[in-house]
Amino acid sequence: MLKKLIIVLCLGAAVGAAWVALKPASTSSAPLTVFCAAGMKKPVEAIAAAYQKDTGTEVRLQYGGTGTLLSQLKITQQGDLFIAADDGALADAKKLEVTREEFPLVIQKPVLAVAKGNPKHIDSLAALKNPDIKLALANPEAASIGRVVKKLLGPEWDPLAAKAAVMKPTVTEIAADLSLGAVDAAIVWDSVVPQFKLEIVPLPELAKHEEHATAAVLTFSQHPAEALRFARYLTAPEKGGAIFQKQGFKAVPGDKWAAVPDLIIYSGGVNRLAIEKLLQQFATHEGITMTTVFNGCGILCASMKTMGDSSNPKFPDVYYACDVCFVPPVAKEFPEAIILTEAEIVIAVPKGNPQNIHTLADLARPGLRVGICNAEQSTIGFLTRSMLKSMNLWDSVSKNASSQVPTADFLVNQMRTGSLDAAVVYGINIHHDPAHFDAIPLPADKSKAVQPFAVRHDSPYQQMSHRLLTFLRQQRTTFENAGFVWKGNSPSIKSADIVLPEWLKQK
Questions:
Q1: 303 contacts: CB under 8 Å, gap ≥ 6
Q2: What is the 3-state secondary structure (H, E, C) of 106-149?
Q3: Are 255 and 462 in contact, with CB atoms under 8 Å apart?
Q4: How far is CA 437 from CA 77, 391, 400, 419, in A?
Q5: Which helix (H) or strand (E) covers residue 51, if one does?
């Protein structure tokens, strides 16, 4: 169990309320090319036909043993999707760097199959060694089922392989031989058994093992948005998932189907400085729309509370807060978070620091014009007030607060016009303007804000939201160029385990 996380400081900011709707680029109507493991042929063929009927996009399917297909992809560097029958083949594809986004489709188990009624009374692995039993196996160099079974059986594999009546490159070929009576037994995927009206003989050597068949977008796809759309269709419970289930497969539920999904994101305003262009890139790549609300985290949390619960269609799928202290209020909907970045809070002063300001206490000097954010409207305002109260400076500094605005960027603009002598802002707010501003550091134990990214536990687009997280975690340079400190390699934290310091709990 995770230990409770002790957060030393939670400081955040809003950079203006904004609603941003991102639209996808137009997608190509060119046909998709899908390389599909042979054992998945029947359901994938049906799903592709349904997809073409629903969307008008043609799907061209090429079947074979997973290993054979992977070798072909390595050489040709062409195609849009690869459907692997097992986890090992997918791992090999990743090592070859030919795949990107992954979509688990179904769970499969290796089983011993016989004809209906088990006419040869085969009841064990040892029985397969009987000279009267004709056994069919899949070639481990070409088919996933062959490779998986070879690994599971260990030293038992070679004697069986030597005795096998046939060894073919795909699981469907050996299943067909069994259904036609050409052999007496075959080791196949359990999902193939109902397709050929066979019967399973339980084997303890295979019983506990399972693999995922997975669709992965190819790195060299010329139509990635359309490839992603078909992958979503394959996994959607009401589309591809229903067809897999009907045909005897154990489907892995994906996101709710929508031809052009709309992902709703609530983001603390300070994050906008780094993510606005990244969100556009992600939306274009995925072929989706994205509604992003930038605001102070206190306002965002209040908005979610007003909606009542996450059944409201406008409830966000993703919440990217200015600081972890604004995750606990919505922990029920967002039970886990990943810390992506850290931001420093500073006192911003004009270049050269003409008022000779060095500490928070200096902001209480009579006649000084100080800018702080409104504690009721802004995350950074609320947290700045808590910090000043913890140092017994709130009353004296707030008297000099000639400006208490909703967002820190307003304070920076006011300083540019000369109407403020100092302002409490993020270092990020003045990061790209060193010619006009100096940053006065604050006590290290009270000057760090951390930005958590959380996916709603019941979002209809959970997989897409996690793909967005993966995408953002690959953009370290962008965040650092914006002035953030990178924390994106941190492990996830439970929202219920976030414990705030006492000084921050002040009202």
A1: 266, 293, 295
A2: EEECEEEEECCCCCCCCCCCHHHHCCCCCEEEECCCCCHHHHHH
A3: yes
A4: 51, 25, 20, 14
A5: helix 41-55
The pLDDT tens digits for 146-194 are 999 999 999 999 999 999 999 999 999 999 999 999 999 999 999 999 9
- Taking residue 322's Cβ as centre, other Cβ atoms within 10 Å add up to 32
Q: Is the dihedral of CA 469, 475, 478, 483 positive or negative?
A: positive
Place of tokens 């607060």: 401
| DSSP 8-state assignment for residue 483 | T
CATH numbers and ranges of domains, the chain: 5-23+259-341+450-505 (3.40.190.10), 32-107+211-251 (3.40.190.10), 110-201 (3.40.190.10), 343-446 (3.40.190.10)
| 136 vs 420: CA distance, rounded Å | 83
Instruction: Tell me what pLDDT residue 273 has.
Output: 87
Query: What number of CA atoms fall less than 13 Å from residue 179's CA on the CB side?
Result: 14
Q: What share of the chain is helix, strand, coil (3-state, %, to 5)?
A: 40, 25, 35
**Residue 303 token pair:** 């908005």
At a CB cut-off of 8 Å and minimum separation 6, what does 207 contact?
A: 109
Calpha distance 455→50 (Å, rounded): 30
Tokens of 325: 């202290």
The residues pairing with 59 across neighbouring beta strands, listed in sequence order, are 32
Q: Are 142 and 67 in contact (CB under 8 A)?
A: yes
Q: Which of 493, 365, 380 is nearest to 446 (CA)?
A: 380
pTM score above 0.85 = yes
Distances in whole angstroms, Cα of residue 165 to Cα of each of 121, 194, 204, 215, 451:
18, 23, 23, 32, 61
Angle between the N-to-C axes of helices 144-153 and 87-95, in degrees from 0 to 180, rounded to the nearest 10: 110
Which residues on adjacent β-strands are paired with residue 375?
Answer: none
For the record, the structure tokens of 196 come out as 């050929």
Residue by residue, what is the 3-state secondary structure of 338-354? Answer: EEEEEEEEEEEEECCCC
Q: What is the pLDDT of residues 309-332, one digit of tens each?
A: 899 999 999 999 998 888 999 999
320: tokens are 């990217």
| 29 — pLDDT class (breaks 50, 70, 90) | low
Residue 55's SS3 state is helix
